[in-house]
Amino acid sequence: MDRFAHPVFADLPETVFETMSRLARQHGAINLGQGFPDGQGPDDVRAAAARALESVSNQYPPMMGLPSLRTAVAAHYRAHQGLDLDPEREVMVTSGATEALAGALMALIRPGDEVVLFEPMYDAYLPLVRRAGGVPRFVTLKPPHFRIEEAALAEAFSERTRLVLLNNPLNPSATVFPEADLALVAAFCRRHDAVAVCDEVWEHVIFDRRRHVPLMALPGMRERTVKIGSAGKIFSLTGWKVGFVMAAEPLMRVLSRAHQFLTFTTPPNLQEAVAYGLTKDDAFFETMRDGLGRSRDRLARGLSDLGFTVLPSAGTYFLSIDIAGFGEGDSAFCERMVREHGVAGIPVSAFYERGDVTNLVRLCFAKNDATLDAAIERLAGLVHAG
After folding, report:
1. Inter-residue contact 338 to 303 (CB < 8 Å)
2. Where is the Aminotransferase class I/classII large domain (predicted)?
3. Whether the Cβ atoms of residue 69 and residue 77 lie closer than 8 Å to each other
C-alpha cells in the first residue's frame, strides 16, 4: 500500500519516543523518555476549564481564537518579554504548537525554498519541511555547549534561503541561546531576507534566573519573525494542546489561511482557562521554574554521584548524560537501559539527521522526587554492571 502514500511519511520509521515508551510499558520501566510531567497541572487553571465547559459556548469559536485568549496572550508577552502585539491582527490560537509549526511551514515554504535547521532538532521539523517542499540545510550544534557559530551559518545560508526554523530553548540539548548567538541568526536572516519561525515553547521553563530573549525582539526581526508558544509547556498541561502564534499582520494573514484548513479551531473551554492562566502573577512562574530546577538538580546530583557525566541544563524538562565511557552508542545504551535496568531514556542521535552525535542520552526530570530517586537507584545497577 506504500504506493498510495507520500514518500515523506511512507519512509518514516516509528518515532523514538513511541518506541521507548512502548518498551517502558513492556518492561515496567520508569519512563524518563517522553517529556511530560508528573501531576495534573495547576488546580485553578483546570478549575477554570471546568467552569468554562458549563458557562461558555461549546460551539465553534472564532477561527483566530477567542478574543479573551488573544488579548491575554498579547498582555502576557508585553509583561514578560516586552513585545507589543496587536491581539486582533498579530495573535492566533492553534491546537498545539506542532499545528502552529505545520501551518507556518505550509504557509511560508514554496517548493525548492531552502530552510535552515539547527540540529539536534525536534523530530517533527524535518518531515514537515520536506512535505512542504522545502530543501533542508543543516547547522550542526555540538555538545557540551551547543553554540551557534558564524562559520556554520555562512555555510548553511544561501541566496535560496527562504526560512529559518529555530528552537529556543533547545530540546533536547536544554540550551538557552545567549543573545550573541541570536544576534548572529538575526543578522543572517536580515542579510538573506529570510523569515524566522521560532519555536519558543520552553520560554518559561528556564532556570538559574536566566531571561528568555525572543528573536522577534532583536533589531530588524519584528516583521520577519513567527513566534510560537505553548500553554502545555507553560502550565504543565501537555495534553491540552493549546498553542499560540504571533507575527506581524502581513505574515499572520497567510498563517491564518493555512490554519483554517488544518484544525480551524481549539476547544473553547481550554482557551478560556489558558486566558485565565496567562494573567497569573510573576510568583506563579517563578515557583514553577524553581520547582523544576530543584528536580533538575536532584536528578543531576544523583547521576553525578553514580559517576555519570551530566551536561548543563539551562531550560526545558531535560538533561543529558554522556555515555561515551560505556563503549556503545546511545541507541544500544537506551535499549539496554530500559530492558535490563527499567529506565527509559531517549538517544540524542535521534535528533540529528546526519548522525554526528551518538554519545548522549536525554532524560526527563519533570517528575516527582520518588520517581527520580527510583530511577537513580535502578541506574546504579547499570553502572555497576558496566
Report:
1. no
2. 30-379
3. no
Residues 6+ apart with CB under 8 A from 207: 289, 292, 293, 296, 313, 314, 315
Please classify residue 261 by burial: count the beta carbons closer than 10 Å to its beta carbon, then call 0-12 exposed, 13-18 middle and 19+ buried: exposed
Cα–Cα distance, 101 to 287 (Å, whole number): 29
Report DSSP state, residue 317. S
Between CA 171 and CA 290 the distance in angstroms is 19
Give the orientation angle of helix 282-306 with respect to helix 369-385, to 10 degrees.
Answer: 20
CB 91 within 8 A of CB 119: no
Contact predicate 322/309, CB 8 Å: yes
Question: What is the rounded distance in angstroms from the CA atom of residue 178 to the CA atom of residue 158?
Answer: 24
Helix axes 330-341, 16-27, angle to 10 degrees: 20
Q: Which residues pair with 195 in a beta bridge?
A: 163
DSSP state of 315: B
Catalogue the E-assigned strands of 134-178: 135-140, 161-167
Query: 21 is written with which cell numbers?
Result: 515508551
Residue that has been written with the C-alpha cell 554526528 in this structure: 356
Place of cell 499545528: 99
pLDDT in tens, 315-332: 999 999 999 999 899 999
Other residues' Cβ atoms within 10 Å of the Cβ of residue 135: 16
Residue 188 clears pLDDT 80, i.e. is over it? yes
| Bridge partner list, 320 | 362
334-360: b or e for each residue (b if 16 or more CB lie within 10 Å)?
A: bbebbeebbbbbbbbbbbbeeeebbbb
Indicate the average pLDDT of the chain: 95
Q: Where would I find the beta strands (DSSP E) of the chain?
A: 30-31, 91-94, 114-119, 135-140, 161-167, 195-199, 225-230, 243-246, 309-310, 318-322, 343-344, 346-347, 360-364
Phi then psi dihedrals of residue 18, to 5 deg: -65, -40
Asked if 21 and 338 touch (Cβ cutoff 8 Å), the reply is: no
36 pLDDT exceeds 90?
no
Residues 113, 328: contact at Cβ < 8 Å? no
Residue 368 has pLDDT above 80, yes or no: yes
